[in-house]
Automatic annotation (TrEMBL):
GO terms for molecular function: kynureninase activity; pyridoxal phosphate binding. Belongs to the kynureninase family. GO terms for biological process: anthranilate metabolic process; L-kynurenine catabolic process; L-tryptophan catabolic process to kynurenine; NAD+ biosynthetic process; transsulfuration. Pathway: Amino-acid degradation; L-kynurenine degradation; L-alanine and anthranilate from L-kynurenine: step 1/1; Cofactor biosynthesis; NAD(+) biosynthesis; quinolinate from L-kynurenine: step 2/3. The lineage of its organism: Bacteria, Bacillati, Actinomycetota, Actinomycetes, Propionibacteriales. Homodimer. InterPro entries: Cys/Met-Metab_PyrdxlP-dep_enz (IPR000277), Kynureninase (IPR010111), PyrdxlP-dep_Trfase (IPR015424), PyrdxlP-dep_Trfase_major (IPR015421), PyrdxlP-dep_Trfase_small (IPR015422). Catalyzes the cleavage of L-kynurenine (L-Kyn) and L-3-hydroxykynurenine (L-3OHKyn) into anthranilic acid (AA) and 3-hydroxyanthranilic acid (3-OHAA), respectively. GO terms for cellular component: cytoplasm. Its cofactor is pyridoxal 5'-phosphate. This is Kynureninase. It comes from Nocardioides simplex (Arthrobacter simplex).
Amino acid sequence: MTQTSLDAAALDAADPLAAHRDRFVGAAGPVVYLDGNSLGRPLRSTAARMTAFVEEEWGGRLIRGWDERWFEQPLTLGDRLAEVALGAGPGQTAVGDSTTVLLYKMVRAAVAARPGRREIVVDRDNFPTDRYVVEGVARECGLTVRWLDVDPDGGMTTDDLAAVLGPDTALVVVSHVAYKSGYLADVAALTRLAHDAGAWILVDLCHSTGAVPVALDAWEVDVAVGCTYKYLNGGPGAPAFGYVAARHLADGTFAQPVQGWMGAADSFTMGPSYAPATGIRRLLSGTPPIVGMLGLADMVELVAEAGIEAVRAKSVALTEYAIALVDRDLPDVRLASPRDPAVRGGHVTLAHPRMREVTAVLWERDVIPDFRMPDGLRLGLSPLSTSFAEVAEGVAAIRTALDG
Ligand SMILES: Cc1ncc(COP(=O)(O)O)c(C=O)c1O
Ligand SMILES: Nc1c(O)cccc1C(=O)C[C@H](N)C(=O)O
């Protein structure tokens, strides 16, 4: 980057998405928020939508709401999310549960679909919940976890995966964007490798959905999950989403273990035993969290309006800017994320032995990054709500804290 391109005000003035920032609560300051990949800011429209929901839809329609809209809402919102941000056709995505619970359902379903195969591949740097679920299912089903060591400042490459795949592999579990390093995995290539070995792939999209374009259908991914409280701004505890490829729904291979009435063939027949619904409804278990879908629905429409490619362009510009400032002002800090934007998602991690204490100091000063073990300060740059000025203030605050 040239010197002039390090001018935050000029970059904000030239940002075609800058006007969207006004739509978020608090984006005008004073908090410098650099943790949108743990919890996105709320949209202003969400407050009005929540009030209207309580007064009109819930308060007015009462139980009729289920017949009128809520029963289908996990699937209609899933379809819209799929269209806007997942590169997936209709009928394959449902909203509900937490990411962790959906991971459990997906891992169980995937290993059941590959009978006789004994191994689940997952990398040691994947998010804890992914690793813990895999460990739990392996124990429950008498399988083995094949742990993959990957570059901690990167993530799972095709070479890493090719080295461990074999006739015993049932499933590969990978994050599209690694939660610590921000490494952006080549999911299309990893999927081809897994399929060549006869395995399924499960992709965790928590850190990419809403910031990085995803093409689940084109990549031929088998199953995927993701959360909606990061770049989809659904709010704390907003429900996750799950995707199951149409081919696995059509041939009935997909069977998840939490058999509940909302995923049954006819919920209101209330019959003596469970028969799964056809299609993606079979991913559901109990009553879906309709209230939790309100904020997310607003943000999906904003991503549609902005366009996911434009969102990605801003995301790349923000992370490039952060790295350029780090190179100039923080020579004592190690970039623990890929330098190449083609293999980097929406966040950047900076390593230094004092980052835990630096993060605590920054939080006291209303500058909010995240700390991730062992020594990483993570800048999560939410493309529609983060300004270049915030990035500049954040990096300057790190310098001050390190010097203090
Ligand atoms: C990659 C990844 N998977 C899963 C989760 C979380 O799962 P849950 O939404 O169930 O807390 C996170 C972050 O919280 C994450 O970064
Ligand atoms: N999901 C979170 C939560 O419920 C509380 C605090 C933080 C989080 C996070 O999102 C952590 C995040 N997935 C991460 O990558 O670190």
